[in-house]
Structures are given as C-alpha cells and as structure tokens.
Amino acid sequence: MRMYDIIEKKRDGQALTTEEINYFINGYTNGEIPDYQVSALLMAIYFQDMNNEERAQITKAMVESGDQIDLSDIAGIKVDKHSTGGVGDTTTLILAPLVASVGVPVAKMSGRGLGHTGGTIDKLEAVPGFHVEINNNEFIDLVNKNKVAVVGQSGNLTPADKKLYGLRDVTATVNSIPLIASSIMSKKIASGADAIVLDVKTGAGAFMKELKDAKALAEAMVTIGNKVGRNTMAVISDMSQPLGNAIGNALEVHEAIQTLQGNGPDDLTELCLTLGSQMVVLANKAETLEEARLKLQDNLNNGKALEQFKVFLKSQGGDTTVVDHPDSLPQATYKVELPAKTSGSVANIIADDIGTAAMMLGAGRATKESTIDLAVGIVLHKKIGDTVDAGEPLLTIHSNSEEVEEVKEKLYKSISITKEAVEAPTLIYDTVTK
Ligand code: URA
Ligand code: CA
Q1: Quick one: which of 101, 201, 273, 389 is 20 to 30 A from 235 by CA?
Q2: pLDDT tens-digit profile of 54-91?
Q3: What is the number of the ligand closest to the CA of 246?
C-alpha cells in the first residue's frame, strides 16, 4: 500500500477502505508516514469529506492507536458527558454528583483548561486538598463505592489524535466535520464509557458559531458513536453568552454548590437537568426523560445531590467544609464592580471575550505552561435580555491585582446594551438521537 495512492484516491472524491485508513493512521502514529503526506490527505478530506463508514473507521483506528481504559470492573452502565467547550461551563461539577445520586456510575476522565475555556480538574483543585492523582484501581474502587470519581487524562490515550490535531492546527484543516467528530469521539471511546451524552455548543462563544454547523457536528458524532457500539446522543445548547453567572475556578465551584442546593442560575440548572435526564435514561435508571428529570429534581431539593458532592470531594482528599462555608474557597483580594454606562436591555455578552477577560485576570492558561489563579474570575449580575439602569453593576471582577483597567475595557467592549427590549436566547436548540 502506498500513501501516495491513498491521497490521490481521496483527492478524487473516493471513499477509503478500512485497510487504507488503518494504514495511514498507524503509519503516521509510528512516524513512518511524513507530515507532508498526511497534510495533503487532511486537506483532501477537508474538501471531499468522509462517509459514515470512513468516519467510524478513522475513529476506531485512532482509538486503537493508544491505551484504552477498561471500566468493565465497574458495575452498571457507565455514561459519560462531553461538552464541545464553552465559557463558564460548570455542568460537569454539578452533573457528576447529581446523576451519581440517582445511581448512575460516573467514571470521569477530565482535562485541564487551555485558553479561555476552563478545565474541570482546575476547578475541582480550587477545593483545598482535592487531587486527581489516583491510579486506575483506586479510580475503579471509588466509582464502585461512591458512584463517582474524577481522574486526570492518562498519558497515552489516542496518540494518533494528538499528532493529527497538532498537524491540523498548522495546515488550516481543524474546521472539518469528519475530522472534529472523529477526534472528539476517539477520546471519549478510548476513555471507556458505554454510553455518551454530547453537549454541542452553538453561538458566539462556541467552536460552531452557526446552529446548522453545530447540528451537523452533533449528527456526525452521534452516528460514529452508535456505529462503534456506544449508545450516543447529543443536545445542542446555547453558548452565545457564558453559562450561569460565574466564570473562574473557585467561583464556579461556588456556583456548582448553589446549583446542587437548588439555588443555581436558571440556565445552568436547566441545562444540567436536560443533560442529566439523558444520562439517567441511557444508564437505564429511568424509563423516560420525565421520570429521570423528576428524580434529579428531587435530589436537588432533598439535599441528596449535595451530600453526594461532599462524599465525592472527601474521597479524593477535598475539604468538604467548602460546601457549607464557600468562604473557605480561595478568595480574590479585590472585588470591582462594572457599572452599566447606559440604561436599557442587555443585547450581547460575547462569551469568547468574557473568557479572555477571565484569562487576563489569571483564571485561564495562555499557554500549557501558565500557572493559574484559582480565586479570580468574573461573576455576571445581568444576562442577555435583562434590563439594567445606568450605574447598576453588570458584573463583579474578582482580581488579585489592583490594576483592572484593561480588563474593564475589554468587558465593556464585550457587553452591549440597547434601548429596545431583548429576548433571552434559546437555551436548548435541539436533541440528536440515533
Ligand atoms: N476538539 C477536539 O478534541 N478535536 C477537534 O478536532 C476539535 C475540537
Ligand atoms: Ca458558570
């Protein structure tokens, strides 16, 4: 088999065989096929697309390029949730204990944040003592015992994806549905979940800015998941503005606690109930979405979800006093309000730019090596559609530096206020099932 022929075939719009896909994925992972040939093939895929069979095969080949996590020693159907990324997305912190509280085993592998989106592990590390350095056996034992545990990503998961993603990044081939879908799904499948709920974001702060593109990505991922034997569905949700009110690590832990107490922001609570109900049904812990939602709602109201959060934090070394005394979370020295310059309705809160402002405060990593400040971030007091009077605070900046002028300027530019009434954006656009 020759890489040249594979490139030519895809260039001319033909479908690649399983053997051809395996040949190029294995050859590239081993370093036998050079970057320039794979670059050419990626560009051909970008223009010619892949059919559903090819998409499933490339995903499988990437899964098999490295370690695969075996969760078979955990009783029950393991359901994972994956978000395509957004700003202030606190859902994992809430969903993990919430669905565990109704008996769904949550064996969560998470990452750290890069750029303006936060990582679940960074957020959890804002709880004093909490750590994710547990070995595979401890991880499995904890899930069997407590129904929930979170571990950092293992070293050699989907090496083919790591190499390909790096190459796509410098060859203008990131933005391709078959390549994005296979990249995301390969990581989820290698992490061992039996079933997968995808939260595909759309809007200004999302990877897929347009609803039709988010839908195409959701359909591609759902098709791949089901083709390779994992029950997969997707929810398409709004990321035109940040989710919930808090953006920043400790601030989002606080927000998660409030939500688990039943006092969270409406959008965050609703998204958690939507995604959580799907997880509960896929795990066979309820017959219908309505029954699942009632169970979750009950556990938010009766304290069981919050209790599960305490058990989870404690089992991984975390100080559970943060739950009843959120003041014991890391606190920023300066709290600066951003007053509205005019009266009217909030028309835009550009999620990307708010994320960047939080990163400027130190809440996110500019590069992989940056250290982050767990205490800092932004708390919104107004969301799109809310009315505001001139001088009323739009948000509070939590900073450890007295100098916040540049951040304030950035924030003013990312929030717009109009005289006309504005409707709050739709939160859940669609669901995609097999
Ligand atoms: N996230 C991924 O993991 N892969 C992509 O290709 C795009 C976003
Ligand atoms: Ca949030």
Answers
A1: 101
A2: 999 999 999 999 999 999 999 999 999 999 988 989 99
A3: 2
